[in-house]
Design a protein that fits this description.
239 residues; T-fold; 7-stranded antiparallel β-sheet; two-stranded antiparallel ribbon
Length: 239
């Protein structure tokens, strides 16, 4: 997936970007279910037992189990055939960790984006909050909302780009057809990503889960193109 990093502080050198992109390469090689030699693929083939999981894999499994409990089973990295796919959590987790790399180097004004999910810090080159567009799932050329971000993260789950890749673990056989996209703003992109995935799996009820969850705001577009937003979402809207 495309990855974008922008830093507007002084003292930026190519090595800082290299470090971030190297980290994403590491994550991809470890967690990609499309790579036969990744750790997660070896786990799915039962070539690696839990006791021998790497520290990062153990952390991701722990966070996934925690998210499953919080969402009452709507987030589950284990499919019905027993295979594990932690991608619904790993992307946001990796973006958040990449942002921490830049923070440790002393950077204040930057954003990190991967596959449409974003962690933003500080201000953009105009001294304003970072501007993020939410696409219309019925017309991807159209931006239907512009959000201002600073020190928080945003993630969108949906079926309008990749098709039906998210399922309701409580009703696996039926596709999620009543909504097309659900965008979540959280204190960081990791929080936004994992709960966007879980909320989308809930269908139309997902926006109410986001409404009631502390620290999250959401924006849902249903199959008819009708949007529903949480109470505080408007506080993040620029246009």
């Amino acid at each position: 997936m495309p990855i974008t990093v922008e830093i507007v502080d002084v003292g930026v050198e190519e090595r800082f970007f290299d470090e971030v992109f190297s980290y994403f390469d590491y994550v991809d090689k470890k967690f990609s279910t499309y790579k036969d030699n990744s750790e997660i693929s070896k786990i799915n083939r039962k070539e690696i037992q839990e006791v021998d999981f790497s520290p990062d894999m153990k952390q991701v499994f722990q966070l996934s189990e925690e998210t499953k409990k919080i969402t009452k089973g709507y987030f589950d990295i284990k499919s019905k055939d027993g295979q594990y796919d932690p991608s619904g959590l790993v992307k946001g987790w990796a973006i958040h960790n990449a942002a921490q790399i830049l923070i440790r180097h002393g950077f204040v004004n930057f954003y990190v984006e991967a596959g449409g999910d974003i962690q933003a810090h500080g201000k953009n080159s105009h001294g304003e909050n970072w501007r993020v567009g939410i696409r219309n799932p019925l017309n991807q050329e159209e931006i239907i909302k512009v959000i201002g971000l600073s020190g928080n993260g945003i993630a969108t789950s949906g079926t309008y780009v990749r098709g039906q890749h998210i399922y309701n673990p409580h009703d696996i056989e039926n596709k999620i057809l009543d909504i097309l996209s659900l965008t979540v703003i959280g204190k960081n992109v990791y929080e936004a990503d994992r709960f966007a995935t879980a909320a989308f799996a809930m269908g139309k009820d997902g926006i109410y889960f986001i409404e009631e969850f502390p620290g999250l705001e959401g924006y849902m577009v249903d199959k008819n193109g009708i949007a529903t937003m949480t109470t505080g979402f408007k506080n993040n809207v620029l246009e």
